[in-house]
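Per your request, structure below.
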């Protein structure tokens, strides 16, 4: 994705075939070459790269790849959005990329409030659109700010727990297998 956006910023038009050729180069270097599920992963990767290449080819915008320091109740949370698209009319599209299909629960996730808060700080006075981009379908879904304060409170509570040294595990059959701490957690 970053390579496609950089090529676009450099004035180069990359089609799906070019994007897949770059994926082949990256795949050979970073894998998962020789993995038991390599063929399955490659089909999924091809699909995602195709979706992103088509989306970027249709855009006439600039991209922002900076990390943001987002203020939450007197603290800073460092965040790098998946995509920030600056359109010619001054609108800032902040996207969270999802690899699958649209779900009902996605828009309720607290990350969207953090993305909106960061965008408002980075681009004061600009029209901000926070959205989910689904690679499987190419669909973009705007996320309304109706739960932002409650969501930011969740971040503030997590920060307070960290400051207090409270790292209680919260086991979940749905989220644990995807957690980076899965093998070391005592939950």
């Amino acid at each position: 994705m970053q390579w496609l956006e950089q090529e676009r910023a450099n004035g180069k038009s990359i089609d799906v075939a070019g994007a897949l050729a770059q994926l082949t180069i990256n795949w050979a270097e970073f894998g998962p070459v020789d993995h038991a599920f390599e063929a399955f992963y490659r089909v999924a990767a091809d699909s995602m790269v195709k979706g992103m290449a088509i989306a970027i080819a249709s855009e006439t915008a600039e991209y922002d790849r900076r990390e943001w320091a987002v203020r939450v109740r007197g603290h800073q949370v460092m965040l790098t959005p998946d995509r920030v698209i600056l359109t010619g009319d001054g609108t800032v599209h902040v996207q969270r990329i999802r690899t699958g299909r649209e779900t009902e629960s996605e828009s309720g996730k607290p990350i969207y409030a953090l993305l909106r808060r960061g965008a408002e700080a980075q681009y004061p006075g600009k029209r901000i659109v926070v959205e989910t981009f689904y690679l499987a379908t190419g669909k973009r879904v705007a996320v309304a700010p109706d739960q932002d304060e409650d969501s930011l409170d969740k971040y503030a509570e997590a920060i307070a727990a960290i400051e207090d040294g409270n790292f209680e595990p919260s086991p979940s059959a749905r989220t644990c297998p995807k957690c980076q701490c899965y093998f070391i957690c005592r939950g």
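The chain has two domains: 2-57, 62-178.

Regards,
D.
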